[in-house]
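yo

u said u wanted the structure for the complex thing, so here. seqs first:
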Amino acid sequence: MAAEVHAIPGARFMDPAVLARIGNLELVSRAVADGFINGLHKAPYFGASVDFAEHRGYVPGDDIRRMDWRLWARTDRYYIKEYEAETNMNFSVLMDVSKSMDYGSRGITKFEYARILTACLTNLVHHQRDRVGFVAFDDQIVEHVPPSAKHMETVLHVLDRLKPGRPGNLKGPLHKLAEHFGRRGVLVIVSDFYDDPEAILDAVSPLRFRGQDLIAFHILDPTELEFGFSDAQPFEDLESGEQMPVVPEAFREEYRSLVRAHIDALTRSFAGVRVDYTMLDTSKPLDHALYKYLGSRSKMMRIR
Amino acid sequence: MSFLAPLFFAALAGLAIPVLLHLTQREKKQIIRFPSLMFVRRIPYQSVRRRKIQNWLLLMVRMAALALIVLAFTRPLLNRADVPAGGASAREVVILVDTSYSMGYADRWARAQAAARDQISKINASDRGSVVLFGSGADIQMRSTSERSRLQATVDSAAPSPSATRFSPALKVAGSILAESTLPKREVVIISDFQRNGWRGEEGAKLPEGTTLTPVAIQDSVDKPNLSVTGVTFTRSSFSDQQRIVVTAGITNRTEQKVSGGSMTLEVGGLMVGTKPVAVEAGSSASVVFDPFTVSGRNTRASVRLSEDALAADNTFNFVVSPIEPVHITVVDRGNASSALYLTRVLSIGNAPKFETVFRQPDAVSDEDLRRSAVVVLNDIEVGDPLAKRLARYVEQGGGMFVATGPRARWPQDVDTLPATVGQPVDRTRGDAARVGGLEYGHPVFEPFRAPRSGDFSAIPVYGYRNLTAAMGAQVLARFDAGTPAMLERHVGRGRVLLWGSTLDVSWSDLPTKPVFLPFIHQSIRHLAGYAEPQPWLTVGQVFNTSAVAARGNANQRVVLTPSGRRLPLDDEGTDVLELTEQGFYEVRGDANQADAIVAANVDPAEADLTPMDPNEIRAAAVGGDPESAGTPSAVPLTPDAREKNQRLWWYLMVLGIVLLGLDTVLSNRMAKA
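structre next:
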């Protein structure tokens, strides 16, 4: 998949920090998604659509309305016309806006990264004529835009207004949402997943159980991965306000291994419940996320 | 301990640099806000802690090493006095025993004596002790002796005196004893009830450096009833040519309980003339008014006495009453009513003193008149030779003479008594009238006019005056605007003469019609008569001028009889001043062994206020505040050997510092490997 992505001409890998400075989410999302779509505008599967794809031979049970009568007249054979698929699925981004997301060491915070990512995905999906929705949550549901083909603008507007504030908790809001999303669709969870892997799994399971396709984007700042501090300093937890004296030199190795273990545990856990999990660090261009999404998406829509 | 090179201590400031850096860095260190400490929290904290403590240890070792080396460079010197054997702890002890009358309260004095004996018993054979008894003054009873028995005897024979408490003189005396001492340890013990009134935070009561001051407070927790007489006031009245006096006594109760059931008696001339019941609320005052009594003779002794209580000394208040005696004046004038009108009127006014005036013509002045009169006024008359001589003799024997010079005034040239020769009259009726100025405000006659708006002599027009030329030994008290003297004074023998250059009627000046006339004449007469308000009592500690009361007696044979019955001869050397040290009546007796004057002496009522103070206040002021440092004995010169021995400390400090530096190296190496 990755090789295929890089081969695509015109795909622009824009620095997220540069994107964050643009400010206009619609412009950003369009810039990213449009460039991205250039080579991928054609859906790789068939369905009910106005775009003709190809003919195939009639087999009993096919809808006779789809038979190409003109071709029958010329060839005296029954052919069925096939069209590009119209997906019409529900697509919602569940974005974590807890306080811990408001952290960035490289010019862009995780929150801004997540916002741009959401905007781009929404834009991309909207281009594919799917219904887009949006949910922002911390320990409660902060914003909710129900999926609709007309809600692209609303989503961008809501995204624009958002601010991270309170401590986060996945379980409460996600369980509540599981009740809400009756119709099956694709849910993208964007979060920094600061919780025990078991607890996270427990939080997403009801969604999965109801048949939603889940894609999890784990957003982390490079500093959170590397722990590149040098001086002994007190650290304060953004969410709880708790302070701790920390000697990074002594902590670094242990910290890195703990984070790696966490990511590994999440990968395993999500894989176990067939959730696509991607770890993104905010220094990487957004295109990675989009490819990841599309890759997942294509896997989900069983290719003919 | 002292230092030979204390400047090196400046290097210690360098020690602070790593610590300061450490501290400031710690303070400036920003708090890092991190999304979640979820993982950090899982890392065992102990390892961090241990690492920090190890760093501290290293820091402390390094700093200690540097400090020791710096200390070694300052060459510390031990002030260990190598005095001969047995003398290392020899003490000079000054025991100050408070003998103010408040020590007579309850059993305070017995306890004070016990405390003094206790202190004396601690004096060793090598020590020396002094006993100083103090009240308002301090008295060295026994100076610098090792004989404990003598010191004990001094304390045993002492008793509370009627004086008030003053700590400052006692401390100064103690300081002088200690300053002369050669012993290494100096101690002062104050045994007192530490009354607040005795200490006013005096400056200068400093003891020599290194003195230990030990206060021994003799105070009572139980508040026993105690009343004190604070003073008496008199109300005089006349009743059929006799003076009657109503005595009002003030009583204060400074204790916490009401005192009732007692009584107060008034004794006059040794006889009890009245008793009144006394009841005073806690912490308040009351007054007792006695029935009037008649004062028959001069210098009558009187006392008010309260019934017995815990403090006896403040129960009695003595005073002396006398009938107010008039000042006898003989006015010599021409027998013309108008010329003496104003003078007559002025002298008929006044109660303290009352003036009794007789008028005589120059040829009618008898010896009896002069003998009775305190002052003779010559009101513009021509004085013949015989009268002038008699008057001169009168003045020399202590009489006073006021001379007013009008157009008729004349005094024989050969009788040198007046302060000036009386010249020709000066007529100032044309043009501007003369004015009086240049007043000698320091003189008793003009002293009342010293303050602004208290009488203006320059506003009085004088139309005529006699040209006066001051005689030898005369003092010019005022001048006319032309510069000639207006008023002069001269001491002749034991008497005084005042000469006024104009008249005392309105013929030559407006003075008699002006407000200043009355005080001017009254002051002049009082001054000439030597009149002074009688003082009914004095306080113990005050001084009494014996010359003032017995002015006319033979000074050489006077004696003073003290309340305790001692006879103090007043020698002719001029020591007329007597300090009152006892409570009671002092008598000044003249040559006929009769009482010329009686002085009542009372204890200071302020001393009856037993409010205690913190003895440490005195200690702080006397030994410089730090009771710990005060115990260091003063240095005695050392031999060079001993000096060298005492300086050897630097060597050990240096070695210890270097050892610590080595330890530091080992420690840091080991930590680096770990």
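Chain B has a mean pLDDT of 83. Chain B is about 25% helix and 30% strand.
cya
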